[in-house]
């Protein structure tokens, strides 16, 4: 059964990641600092008491268990419903600028080089007004795009809230230089390949577990400048298992669920860490044979060196463009039980996922 679950996990979405770094005694740790201060978790845990714009009651309930193992489901799966403006998040240019909204500038158009730049080593800022000292020292602030689903979720779908922009915009005779400037770029590669955006843009045709309909209409504009609001606010409702995401340990293990192991308990060093000087390698992308699922034999043949802790597999799922198929396809490839067992027993890998560039 474990094997089946593992298989299920990896296969569930063509670009989900799963940490295998699960401790024996289930006590969730919620650390904010990793790697001796090299990584800071600056995202707030989303919780019911978190403030929400214009409300005295806070966020309230935002996540519901919609499928439960206790009720015969293969896994526990939750659904969340909340404002795109909740907790630690990024505002899209379209949040306040009419013309950007109309042109489709959602957060998928933001520059990952700006968001993730880690070349700044020491930065001391001192406000001339208050003399209070803000110091940012020798830390790389890594913005966790993978993790903070909230960020990605403001991405547009082909619904009215975020009109799609014609990719081969032939902008017409009336177009001006300004119109051309407002063409949203959706890059996947930044900084000469130093940063690759492997998260898929949320669109209503994105596949959803066991559904023929895709994730559907998942985002709505609930406050609009046109109706007197000071900004446009969207809200979204979707399964926490949608698109590019990280599975929490509680997704498949009862005792982890009960002990509160949500994604906030995952090790950011494993997820984001860079290799240490003494180590041969930290992460790698592995091309998997196309004619097979990931079995023990396949794992062995890949010859992944000891020391590698993070692996993104590139599989047939990517070639088949499964993330672009609205109908859920059960024939995806993933780990078979013996493959997962082999990985645990013979490698240092703590994190697996699928490398599937959009
Ligand atoms: C499980 O089934 C019980 C009894 O039918 C029901 O009360 C409960 O809401 C169900 N829970 C989920 C998560 O489906
Ligand atoms: C606000 O939403 C309306 C749709 O009601 C849209 O036409 C407008 O461009 C949006 N404005 C901004 C600033 O996002
Ligand atoms: C704005 O107001 C119009 C007319 O009252 C209504 O039809 C529309 O749904 C409202 N839009 C939003 C986003 O509140
Ligand atoms: C599934 O959800 C139930 C609540 O219905 C919970 O008690 C159980 O621990 C969960 N199991 C897993 C594997 O997450
Ligand atoms: C992988 O396994 C799935 C389900 O078990 C199956 O449908 C699929 O054909 C297999 N893929 C390959 C390439 O063997």
From TrEMBL:
<keyword id="KW-0732">Signal</keyword>
<comment type="similarity">
    <text>Belongs to the Cyclase 1 superfamily.</text>
</comment>
<protein>
    <recommendedName>
        <fullName>Cyclase family protein</fullName>
    </recommendedName>
</protein>
<dbReference type="GO" id="GO:0004061">
    <property type="term" value="F:arylformamidase activity"/>
</dbReference>
<dbReference type="GO" id="GO:0019441">
    <property type="term" value="P:L-tryptophan catabolic process to kynurenine"/>
</dbReference>
<keyword id="KW-0964">Secreted</keyword>
<dbReference type="InterPro" id="IPR007325">
    <property type="entry name" value="KFase/CYL"/>
</dbReference>
<dbReference type="InterPro" id="IPR037175">
    <property type="entry name" value="KFase_sf"/>
</dbReference>
<dbReference type="Pfam" id="PF04199">
    <property type="entry name" value="Cyclase"/>
</dbReference>
<keyword id="KW-0272">Extracellular matrix</keyword>
<feature type="signal peptide">
    <location>
        <begin position="1"/>
        <end position="21"/>
    </location>
</feature>
